[in-house]
Design goal:
It is a single chain. The protein has helices at about 60-70, 75-80, 110-115, 115-120, 135-145, 165-175, 180-190, 190-195, 200-210, 215-225, 255-265, 280-285, 285-300, and strands at about 5-10, 25-30, 35-40, 50-55, 85-90, 125-130, 150-155, 245-250, 270-275, 315-320, 355, 360-365, 365-370. The chain is of the alpha/beta class. The chain has a 9-stranded mixed beta sheet with strand order 2-3-5-4-6-7-8-9-13, with helices on both faces. The protein starts with a strand and ends in an 11-residue tail after the last strand.
Length: about 375
């Protein structure tokens, strides 16, 4: 077994905002059977490496959804090894004009079917996908139909289920008293964030109130609410064929949906990161902890040979310094502050078939606790 070393990490990390420091990226428009899609490409191709492809949520574009995460200093360690392709859903790119009245916006399935055109355009054969909300669903749908091109998935706030009749009725009733913009805010943020009217909530409300492409956003929102059930089934034919990391904030609006998704996936291929104090948008509120978890996720795939001893978030991690096999997708042992380390997965075999983890009552893959001051993570 590779030697372990203790690493102390701190959450306080500056974002790379110095003029000229971040790669500004190159924008391209790609023709697809379902319309034109805008992509932004960062980096240069690396031999035998997949691209990291991102897809944003409703009410956002790639900048508002991922800029904080991808400009976080320690994320540069990771993305320097890959080309990054940010996808803006049709009509969501900055400065996009409103679609004409009567425009037929693509379904989420059709948005997923645009991705092969994007990969053909950039001449890539495989990706590591990072999606949030609607974007997570789109990447999941794409992965189910193009499994041979997806090497890993990070799905934040995914809801794999179609809206049932009760959900549909509740949505209609809410629509009688709330605007589409307010419903989108309730989709993006926790009730606590909305009641406190946090800075992120204020910023998002301002964006929606002043968006020239608000009709486009409403069309994307409508497509999301009309999504089909992914019909995932543990041990069944419909499941992901690649490593998956599920991410959700504690008390986030999609917490229950992500927990249910976790219960439907292969626990030996799935890790579950539930982040305390992160609200509905953990990639914006806790970029350091998500960066750290993503680093181990990619390291487990063999693309980063070792983890540098750097201070990233509060608490301590125990790290392997070599690529990990599939069964150890995240090379970290979790220790909650003031408590004994959580047992490793191989030490609790009865939990791997759907029992409870030592840190959570949720079923399925391993829970990675990422609360403030906690020493986050676990073996699979």
């Amino acid at each position: 077994m590779t030697e372990l070393q203790e690493v102390q990490i701190t959450e306080e990390k500056p974002l790379l905002r110095a003029p000229g420091a971040p790669d500004p990226g190159k924008k391209h428009t790609v023709e697809t059977p379902y319309g034109v899609v805008t992509i932004t490409i960062h980096g240069t191709p690396k031999p035998k490496r997949p691209a990291i492809l991102t897809y944003h949520d409703v009410g956002q574009n790639h900048l508002s959804c991922f800029d904080t995460l991808f400009h976080f200093e320690d994320m540069q360690e990771i993305i320097k090894n890959f080309v990054v392709i940010h996808v803006d859903a049709p009509g969501m790119e900055e400065g996009a004009p409103a679609f004409p009245l009567g425009y037929q916006y693509p379904s989420l399935d059709q948005l997923a079917d645009m991705i092969p055109c994007i990969l053909q355009y950039v001449n890539f054969t495989s990706i590591i996908g990072i999606g949030v909300g609607a974007g997570a669903y789109i990447l999941a749908r794409y992965s189910l139909s193009h499994a041979d091109t997806v090497e890993g998935l990070v799905l934040v706030n995914i809801d794999p289920n179609a809206k049932g009749w009760m959900d549909w009725a509740a949505h209609k009733l809410t629509g009688l008293t709330s605007s589409n913009s307010e419903m989108i805010l309730q989709h993006l943020f926790s009730q606590e964030e909305l009641s406190k009217n946090t800075e992120l909530v204020q910023q998002q409300r301002h964006v929606l109130s002043n968006a020239t492409n608000l009709p486009n956003i409403q069309l994307y929102w409508s497509s999301y609410n009309s999504r089909r059930d992914l019909s995932l089934e543990r041990g069944g034919d419909i499941t992901f064929k690649c490593p998956v990391m599920l991410v959700v904030g504690d008390q986030a609006p999609h917490e229950d949906a992500v927990v249910e998704c976790n219960s439907k996936l292969d626990p030996t291929q799935t890790s579950f990161l539930k982040m305390a104090d992160s609200g509905g948008q953990p990639q914006l509120t806790q970029p350091g902890k998500l960066t750290e978890a993503f680093k181990y996720f990619v390291q487990g795939m063999g693309y980063i040979p070792y983890v540098l001893d750097k201070k990233l978030s509060q608490g301590g991690f125990v790290l392997h310094d070599a690529p990990l096999p599939l069964a150890h997708r995240l090379s970290v042992q979790c220790r909650l502050r003031g408590r004994e380390p959580l047992p490793l997965a191989h030490a609790v075999p009865e939990q791997r078939g759907g029992g409870t983890s030592a840190a959570s009552p949720h079923h399925g893959g391993v829970l990675l606790s990422a609360g403030p001051g906690d020493e986050a993570a676990s073996h699979l």
